[in-house]
Automatic annotation (TrEMBL):
Localization terms from the record: Cell membrane
Gene Ontology cellular-component terms listed: plasma membrane
Annotated membrane topology: Multi-pass membrane protein
Protein name, entry field: Short-chain fatty acids transporter
Pfam family, one: DcuC
InterPro entries: C4_dicarb_anaerob_car-like, DASS-Related_Transporters
Regions crossing the membrane: 15-34, 76-96, 116-138, 159-179, 199-221, 257-279, 285-305, 317-337, 343-365, 411-429, 441-462
Species: Staphylococcus caeli
Keywords, ordered alphabetically: Cell membrane, Membrane, Transmembrane, Transmembrane helix
Amino acid sequence: MVKNFLKDKRLKTPHTYALLLCIIIFASILTYLIPAGTFSREKKDGQTLVIPGSYEQVQQHGVSFFDIFRAIPEGLISGGEIVFYIFLVGGAFGIVHKTGAFENGVNKAMQSLGAYKVLMIPLTMTIFSILGFSIGLAEETIIFVPIGIIIARTLGYDALTGAAMVILGAASGFIGGMLNPFTVGVAQTVAELPMFSGWGLRSIIYVFILIAAISTVMLYARKVKRDKSKSYVYELEQIEAKSETQLTRARFTKRQAIGLGLIVLAIILNVYGIFTFGWSFNEMSANFIFAGILAGVIGGLGINGTFDAMIEGMKDILFGAMIVGFAKGIIVILENGEVIDSIVYGMTTLLAGVPSSLVIIAMFILQFMLNFFIPSGSGQALTTMPLMVPISDLLNINRQITVLAFQYGDAISNVLFPTSAILMGALAVGKITYTQWLKFAWKVILLWVIICCIGMSVALIVGY
């Protein structure tokens, strides 16, 4: 009994918030161990630049025990625009989902394809990828996994195919990130770059990322359809075959179509506003609030039902929103203790003379590994970019490439590490084990790493 208890304890993964709190505590200890120091900075072309050679040590003043916990609300306040944007997008999404627009839209698509139902795989993955690079679809993928699985089984495939259609589809767009406010938007804001600038090269790399994902899923699906025993979840399929579930044949109404159209319109309007009027998270949030409420009322939820659905949507997104405050708290501690510039100085001294191509790959690997501890794109951006931007400036590396290293390192690892609540939640809904997922996904993850490394190298060569 004791042996089993100890075994269970060993298998438990520390909660993400607990890990982040430990990092905050570690950062507070560093304020006593690392010499305090600062760089001089200057404003140039709208960017705050570190002046090379201006680092100097200042008087040491480590943070107090109470500051450790105060850093969390301070982090939430400083990242308030992002936190509430996450909540409000989740709320708008929850409203549209409550109207049944997504499920019935899938039904309509399958009926329209007729004999070409196999195209549901690339079509579904492309749609989810668009949501991934436009509104940063992440936590919401969990609610779509059951629909993906039903689609896959209806077409003669297995649960892993259905789950992969949703997970890898959304992940492809998340990696591309052309209009993703949670990763590229936050990282570029911290780096003082125009939001969503440099989308051209990102779009080209995204196409290769999506093709790799669709090809992987379709090749596996074809293998399963030819021989069911080749399925990585063969035992699950045998069990589930006894209680086969079909898509509910509900009619896709004009009201539901309007609801989906309003969300699409909000995304388009946000992109237009950013490039034309310089909108930020506040204006984008306002658009999603309006679109969501209107979609709920038109979709027949009523005023009370609309706001109930909004609250449900916000609950689903709570995990990702609160991580922003914890992650930002790490930087609050390092800034208050005036050791963040000392860390930058030490790292740039270490990397001086190293070719830029190797520095970028090192940044990519660092961001990739950090996602094990900070499985939140916006949280990781707020934690790492204040360090990476000065380093890239001092080493004469374009900030856009530094954003790329963060973007790709963070996004690819989202479908690999078991600390990702989104991945583990999606697999749990599909009754797929983590080991089964790794057996399937490692090839496409490796492909993505190669594609992104080539993309970053091209960016460096062309002066992106």
